[in-house]
Amino acid sequence: MTEAQKRARASMLRRKKQLRRRMLILIAVIAGIVLIAFMIRRIGSRQTSANENWNITDKKYIEERPELDVELLPINKYSRPGTALTEVNGVVVHYTANPGTSAMQNRDYFAGLAESHETSASSHFIIGLKGEIVQCVPCNEVAYASKERNYDTVSIECCIEDETGKFNDETYQSLVELVTWLMGRYDLRVEDVIRHYDVTGKNCPKYYVENEDAWVNFRNDLAAYIAKNGVDKKK
Predict the structure, then answer these.
(1) Which in 63, 121, 132, 148 has the greatest CB count within 10 A?
(2) Measuring CA to CA, how many Å separate 27 from each of 19, 23, 35, 171?
(3) For residue 98, which of 198, 171, 194, 206 has the smallest C-alpha distance?
């Protein structure tokens, strides 16, 4: 084989390698596009199905209030300003971000802000690790929890066991019962139940921001609870 033939052969082999590499890249890109399209379709289908179930709020509501302990904060400008909440258009779910603390410990922290002036913070309700519900601020007053949505929402803080921010079974069950009762009280839909994150972008409640499917499941559980335990709305 002459030197020219060797060069031609080497050039042909290089072109074949380049062509094979381009084909592999093209196949990978097409596979990626197909996978993304499949995931979008799957998520859209699941969301449509969920929204259909969420329409249960048009037919039923939870009438009975869950058991709760009313421990109102003293009127003060740092945690209970006494400002009237003239309308409720949503419920905002939060987490306490301090693992292992109880509902009353968090309530007392809010109360102590009247003296410490450390910050302005509070919540209408706090749910503890044993599922106990403590009310800190009347529902017809503003709580300092959700920035601009303070003036048209009811806020709920949930205690957590560890840094994951996931609610244990007792806390979760009480949250479902409290939220669904509030939905009935204020004629709210499932879409009106939001996270602190949805208002401010804050990573709160942490587990339900970092695990979007868990948040979708929670909202589905609200609809399922109303379907099972709700009473018919009067026409």
Answers:
(1) 132
(2) 12, 6, 12, 48
(3) 206
Q: Which amino acid is at 32?
A: G
Cα–Cα distance list, 105 to 95, 108, 112, 189 (Å)? 14, 5, 10, 31
Q: Which of 162, 155, 100 is nearest to 128 (CA)?
A: 100
Q: How many Cβ atoms sit within 10 Å of the Cβ of residue 178? A: 25
10-residue mean pLDDT series, the chain (235 residues): 67 75 77 64 50 90 97 98 96 98 98 97 98 98 97 98 98 98 98 97 98 97 97 86
Give the pLDDT confidence score for residue 41 in this predicted structure.
55
The identity of residue 61, as a single letter, is Y
Question: pLDDT tens for residues 183-203?
Answer: 999 999 999 999 999 999 999
Q: Where are the beta strands (DSSP E) in the chain?
A: 60-61, 69-70, 90-95, 125-127, 133-135, 153-158, 193-195, 231-232
- The answer to whether residues 111 and 176 touch, using CB atoms and an 8 Å cutoff, is no
Strand 90-95 relative to strand 193-195: parallel, antiparallel, unpaired? parallel
- pTM flag (> 0.85): no
pLDDT of residue 21: 79
Exposure b/e, 68-105, CB count within 10 A at least 16 = b: beeeebeebebbbbeeebeebebbbbbbbbeeebbbee
| Nearest Cα to Cα of residue 65 among 174, 211, 190, 197 | 174
Contact, 86 vs 93, CB < 8 A?
no
Q: One-letter amino acid identity for 141?
A: E
